[in-house]
Amino acid sequence: MANVVWTKEDILALLEAYSDRYQQFNIGNFRPLDWDYVLLSVNAKKQPGMLGKTRQQVKNKMENMKKKYRQEKGAHTPGLPVKWSYFNDMDRIFGNNLRVLQTLDAENTAPVPKSIVKPEEGCSPSTPVIEVHLSVDLKESEELLPESTCLVDEEALPATSVQVENAPDIHSNSSARRGKKRRHNSYYSPAKALAGAITKFGELCTQLERDRAEREERRTEREERRQKENADREERILKMQMDMQLRLAELFTLGQKPNRGAPTGEEVKK
């Protein structure tokens, strides 16, 4: 697979977005949501005509930057300038967190030390991962292998880490668990606030819909009463008209017949 081209603007955008997320939530093991934030920031500043990066490419590049920083940190002599142009940016992020990034000597060819690191996303918590630090010369244009077997993706490169059975439990320390819980709470507090706002909005929409349905029902009832009253009124008017016609017909019929109760002339002579 061809190497991914990272310009200076891409790397600076990567470090800026990673630093924002890392310092804001105080987390070292990014979740997919965090990597998506970094990915969007990187692709937003890409040069025209260049392809956008993927989440796995961003992960791999950041892991390689960490490796390079550890080597430069181990080989750095206080008071002397550092040739690597991104050393100061990386030092601002990880300079005070040596437990996450251990200092290595770039010129040391002795057996490489191993340290237990926190499993990456998707790995079983009970199976820690051994992180193997390789003492090699890195170039800024090289796309190295990811550090953990947990970074599995279609575009992921082969892993440089191995899983070891019967490794010590990294979650056994109660203080570490408490710190992790605090970070977890601080990370999910915006999500909880958003979920609460969505719930309240849903309740408001439900109440508005219920009120609208009640108004519509009352309007329908009023319309039905009005139609019924109109029908009753028309029925009464029609009945009155029919009664009037019957009375007129009776009066007209009585006016045409002779009055049999009155005496005639012959009856008067007799």
TrEMBL record:
Stretches the record annotates as Disordered: 162-184, 210-235
Span of domain Myb/SANT-like DNA-binding: 5-93
UniProt xrefs under Pfam families: Myb_DNA-bind_4
Protein's UniProt name: Myb/SANT-like DNA-binding domain-containing protein
